[in-house]
Amino acid sequence: MNKLFSIFGDPVSHSRSPLMHNSVFKNLNYDACYTRTRLVDGDKLRETFFALGLSGANVTVPHKEAAFKACDEVRGFAKSVGAVNTLVNENGRLVGYNTDADGFMYAISEFGDIENILIIGAGGTAKALASRFLQDGLKVSVLNRSESSLEYFKKLGCECGVWSDFHVKKYDLVVNATSAGLSDDRLPAPIDLVNSILENSNYAADAIYGKLTPFLKMAKEKKMTYKDGADMLLGQGVLANELFVNFELGKEEIKTQMRKSFLL
Ligand code: NDP
């Protein structure tokens, strides 16, 4: 096998990334294989990457900020968010990118006009989304469980709050960018607050994919239009794969093959 790729995370057993990337490699005859690696300690990311002899990797919860620190060079959008989800081995140098936010823009483009967004969560994904939304001139509010992670968003000019002091307004779109609901049945905020937010929002989206989270279940019960993280996953995956194969394969072909893996 010519090239080996992996996804790093904890947990990582739920990840569809191996299926997605292997579908592209296999069907487009690209000599590579993509595996998964459970990594508990983010500080070990760099040494594990090189010990496994990887050509590239994706990084998921909770190591995107550790991945940013592990890089020799960070390019593009990842620089402004301090979080990396894609790593490429360039002649022994670790180069980092962030393809999450563009993947998300692709997913919500189907919702139509969006101007006012509430993000629940303040981790790597929330940072990437907020910066990307602001780049497009959208209005962004952020609600998080703990105060300490909100500093970044206050500096960007977002309206911020924690569960106890949050004043709900009207939103075109509310996004769950927390990991609540990923491997448990939690809501991203207390139920009354989530209820009030959904009552005041037009659309709901969750970054989590492959299951109806308690958050989306509530949106569904309210007959809202919603999306899970599958399209976001597809978008970020296509952009990451282009980097892995150094743009040797066509974007549309990558997307077609990757989408097929969603049916498996
Ligand atoms: P981080 O670990 O960086 O951040 C986690 C965030 O979730 C923090 O704001 C944290 O709050 C909050 N949180 C965690 N547990 C709870 C809880 N029980 N209740 C309320 N808030 C909670 O994670 P990421 O930003 O990397 O990822 C967030 C989610 O997005 C994950 O579920 C991940 O799977 C998903 N994702 C999906 C993608 C896709 O392609 N579909 C791509 C990227 C991510 P606090 O600050 O208080 O700790």
Provide a quick synopsis of the model.
With 264 residues, this protein is an alpha/beta fold. Helix content is 38%, strand content 23%. Helix 8 links the parallel strand 10 and strand 11.
Describe this structure in words.
This protein has 264 residues and is an alpha/beta fold. Helix content is 38%, strand content 23%. The protein is built from eleven helices and twelve strands. It has helices spanning 17-27, 45-51, 64-70, 77-81, 100-108, 124-135, 151-156, 191-199, 214-221, 230-244, 251-261; strands at residues 3-9, 32-38, 56-59, 73-74, 86-90, 93-97, 116-120, 139-144, 159-162, 171-176, 201-206, 225-227. The strands form two sheets. A six-stranded mixed sheet has the order 2-1-3-5-6-4, with helices on both faces. A six-stranded parallel sheet has the order 9-8-7-10-11-12, with helices on both faces. The structure holds NADPH dihydro-nicotinamide-adenine-dinucleotide phosphate. The site of NADPH dihydro-nicotinamide-adenine-dinucleotide phosphate has 30 residues, from α5, α6 and α10.
Features:
264 residues, 11 helices
Which hetero compounds are present in the coordinates? Answer: NADPH dihydro-nicotinamide-adenine-dinucleotide phosphate
> Helicity, in percent?
25-40%
List the secondary-structure elements in sequence, H or E. EHEHEHEHEEHEHEHEEHEHEHH
Structural class category: alpha/beta
The first-to-last residue Cα distance is 24 Å
- Catalogue the unreliable spans: none
Task: Tell me the Rg in angstroms.
Answer: 18 Å
Number of helices: 11
Shape: globular
Largest sheet: 6 strands, mixed
User: Strand tally, please?
Assistant: 12
Strand order in space, largest sheet:
2-1-3-5-6-4
Mean pLDDT: 95
